[in-house]
Amino acid sequence: MTELRGRALSLLGRFYGYRSFRPGQYEVIEAVASGRDAVVIMPTGGGKSICYQLPALLAERGCGIVVSPLIALMQDQTQGLVANGIPAAAIHSNRSEEENRRIFAAASAGRIKLLYVSPERLLLDVERFRMLDVSLFAIDEAHCISQWGHDFRPDYTALSALRDNFPGVPVVALTATADRLTRADIVSQLGLRSPYCYLGSFDRPNISLRAYVSPDKRTRIRFIADLARRYPSDSGVVYCLSRKGAESMCKALEGAGLRSVCYHAGMTAEERDRSLRAFLAGDVRVVCATVAFGMGIDKSNIRWVVHCNMPGNIESYYQEIGRAGRDGLPAEAVLFYSYADVVMRRNFASESGQSEVNMEKLARMQAYAEARVCRRRILLSYFGEERSCDCGNCDNCRRPPERFDGTVLAQKALSAVMRTGQQVGVKMLVNILRGAQRSDIRLAGYDRLPTFGVGSDLLYEEWNDYITQMLQLGLLEMAYERGNRLNVTPYGMRVLRGSERIELSVCPPPQSYKMKKEQAAVACSGVPDADTGLFEYLKSVRTEVARSCGMPPYLVFSDATLLDMARRRPTDMLGLLEVNGVGEKKAARFGPRFLRALAEWRVTGGIKKG
Ligand code: ADP
Ligand code: ZN
Questions:
Q1: Class of domain 532-604
Q2: CA–CA separation, 126 and 120 (whole Å)
Q3: Model confidence pLDDT, tens digit, residues 51-70
Q4: How many other C-beta atoms lie within 10 A of the C-beta of residue 529?
Q5: Rounded distance, CA 361 to CA 534, Å?
Q6: Whether the domain at 3-199 and the domain at 207-398 fall into the same CATH topology
């Protein structure tokens, strides 16, 4: 073992309590520690932070400067570092000038190893930073510098001045999402010199993937409430398209007895901060949010992410679901999607600066949503990763779609569309087919059509699914310019006349919109039975510890750490230090309480809880 590797490993054990590096980490650390620039592309949860934190620790002198886009994120990171015994601080506009001065003074005196700062602040204070002994720059969420990325932030472009101001200091750029174009842009804008590039695997096999075609609002709420109930001590995120959507979902969930908070750009910074704190601290388990939420959220016990609307591209989607299961334990990603989403997204994309690129990205996202093949293969192939076998952990792998001769079924729908003079959208069509007693139907005289009620044997969700399939197959098309009314295509006419037959995939039975017991069991299968009780008990101890020292629970110990503790059941401090994720500082601070809990558990055989 090289000397550097030995030192790096011993710091990893002492401060973080980890025994080995994850793929890619050491190579990046070695490059940066030897003064080389680096680009690190790893999925969310892959372990990017250690790639710049360890080189800063390895440097004998000086301080690593970390550029990060959000204050909440900086605070979370510094709090986590300090809890591990690593001196860290953040400089930002929410602090008084006095506090910032104090932090600078501490940094110049060599009492801070990692200093977090927002991009505009760094450039504003560039003279003060020049006075510091800077060991490295880490640019987190580096894709924000590129217009090709999906989250361009003008503040970031000023970072191209770094290289001139600090010619000898290595720069490491980190991001969870960057296609080839964005990657090249990061390198050129930051002026990186033949950087070491690490492109990690994007596979997150612990996240199960599912998608459902437009369940109605009640079904969605029931679904989400079920999901939350299955993970009673963990958290989840519900992503909505609009602020209004997030607010109404939040209210609806409250109505279903599920406490939740909102998070979107229409709230004041203070309100958002309050929501975030409540969520991070575990006081509230569900957040209903727009895309404004989540960048860099390192909360390890987010167990599920539900999208109520389809995102505009796969990068955003993958990044958003990547917030679940960061501890590597089983997690779930569920996408609800409807044609209305596609229409809305098309409008966004066509009005955006790069409509061609964005339309193409949207098309790929839509294909994912509608896919009847392994969803993980679609995602990974999008990021350029070859995969020759199915994942076994998505809806399409678990329940391959069954096909049937759908000619007669399609004829019913096609005939209804023709008889209304191609004047109706999907919703009205389903209501006509199912013979719904509604005033809008009577008013239009649709209740007198011969096709009224011919499809009353199927549920709303089922018709919805079949009509979506008919759109995908090209029997129907949606006239976006005519308020999304349905038209029958020439192919549809041939099927209607009976000169061609078609196959449809069986719509998943509607009960599966509700979670089934066996699925729930599969989702939780990462925890062996014998340890589950103890694991839950340790979680309750963690909650108590977190409360008493004013920290978010996941910063005390992650779920993965508690699970390892439940498996190993250490009886003394040395044993405790063997647990993955228990470093020296945390062992000293929290160890006695957890050892006491483990001792109680042994004595009572798990009968008495707390
Ligand atoms: P990213 O920034 O890439 O999203 P993080 O750096 O926040 O990911 O790491 C995700 C989680 O993995 C954290 O809880 C972190 O402590 C843990 N982790 C990172 N490196 C290791 C390692 N070598 N061994 C075990 N856990 C690790
Ligand atoms: Zn699959």
A1: mainly alpha
A2: 10
A3: 999 999 999 889 999 999 88
A4: 6
A5: 45
A6: yes
50 lines ligand 1 (CB under 6 A): yes
- Any ligand 1 atom below 6 A from CB of 376: no
Taking CA atoms only, the protein residue closest to ligand 1 atom 12 is: 47
CA proximity to 17, closest of 565, 552, 600: 565
Distances (CA, A) of 235 to 19, 223, 301, 330, 509: 28, 15, 6, 13, 28
**Tokens encoding 555:** 């910063």
Q: How many CB atoms lie within 10 A of CB 562?
A: 26
**Pair type for strands 503-505 and 403-405:** antiparallel
Looking up tokens 């055989």 gives 605
Ligand 1 neighbourhood includes 29 CB (under 6 angstroms):
no
**Rounded to the nearest 5°, which phi and psi values hold at 399?**
-140, 80
Sequence length of the chain is 610
500: tokens are 């061609």
**What is the architecture of the domain spanning 419-501?**
Orthogonal Bundle (1.10)
- Domain definitions of the chain by residue range: 3-199, 207-398, 419-501, 532-604
Q: How far is the CA of 199 from the centre of ligand 2 (A)?
A: 23
Domain at 207-398: CATH architecture: 3-Layer(aba) Sandwich (3.40)
> Which atom of ligand 1 is nearest to 300's Cα?
14
The two tokens of residue 376 are: 């993980």
How far is 330 from 304, CA to CA, in rounded Å?
A: 9
Report the 10 Å Cβ neighbour count for 10.
10
16 C-alpha to ligand 1 centroid (Å): 10
Strand-pair category, 476-479 with 235-239: unpaired
Superfamily of domain 3-199: P-loop containing nucleotide triphosphate hydrolases (3.40.50.300)
Give how far Cα 11 sits from Cα of 6, 89, 219, Å.
9, 20, 50
Residue identified by tokens 């090209």 is 474
State whether the beta carbon of 148 lies less than 6 angstroms from ligand 1.
no
> What confidence tens digit (pLDDT) does each residue in 509-532 have?
654 444 444 444 444 444 556 677
pLDDT tens-digit map of 178-237: 677 788 899 999 999 999 999 988 888 999 999 998 788 888 999 999 999 999 889 999
Q: What angle do CA 341, 342, 348 make, to 5 degrees?
A: 90
Helix (H, G, I), strand (E, B) or coil at 175: strand
